[in-house]
Amino acid sequence: MRPIEYTGANATIVTAFEALARVAQSGTYWSDDEVKPVKSAIKTHYIAEQQRRCCYCNRDLASNHHGDWDGEHIIPKSSHPQFLFKPENLAAACKTCNLEKHDDPVLINNRRVTFPTSSADYLIVHPHFDTYDEHIRWIGDVPRPNGSEKGKTTIYMCDLMRFAASDAGMKTSPADKRYDKLVGDLMARPSPDDARMILAALEADLVARQA
Q1: SS (H, E, C) 58-122
Q2: Which of 30, 74, 135, 175 has the fewest CB atoms within 10 Å, counting from its CB?
């Protein structure tokens, strides 16, 4: 994926922030009114680069409207504000994936202070350094990690099982820790029919527990 290049007034804002001492850099600056044009440029760029597909669930949002998207920091801005405008730390995510991922750590070494540029430095599938289909493959609404630990972590961290849960009419996502075994079974099943049977069985079990 081609990283964004800042120009004009946006470049001035980014350069000024990156010139600050690290102790003076804060992730909260992202919410400053001054940053709005930079955020808008970031969304426009990555929505187009990703062909309107969320960087985590890979779903086509069929929309270029900025209100449908979040500008995503792969490494959270709360823990690593120095990467706030780093082009390779940015992408476009659907609002649900961004909310589920929240500020969870994504680095092998979360104390890292210089920007990691290798796929091996990350716990999740990285939109700039990884090929999505090598780690996650979708069978209908069920994501499979293709034997990839990164794929498993991304599925869990972003609750990608929510699509299968919704399709089965479940009120509780099977990405909940109580359903770890079920998630493993779903990921290992070769066919959508098997996956639907497991989800249906779990739904029946949940109904029985609540009765």
Answers
A1: CCECCCCCHHHEEEEECCCCCCCHHHCCCHHHEEEEEHHHHHHHCCCCCECCCCCCCCCCCHHHE
A2: 30
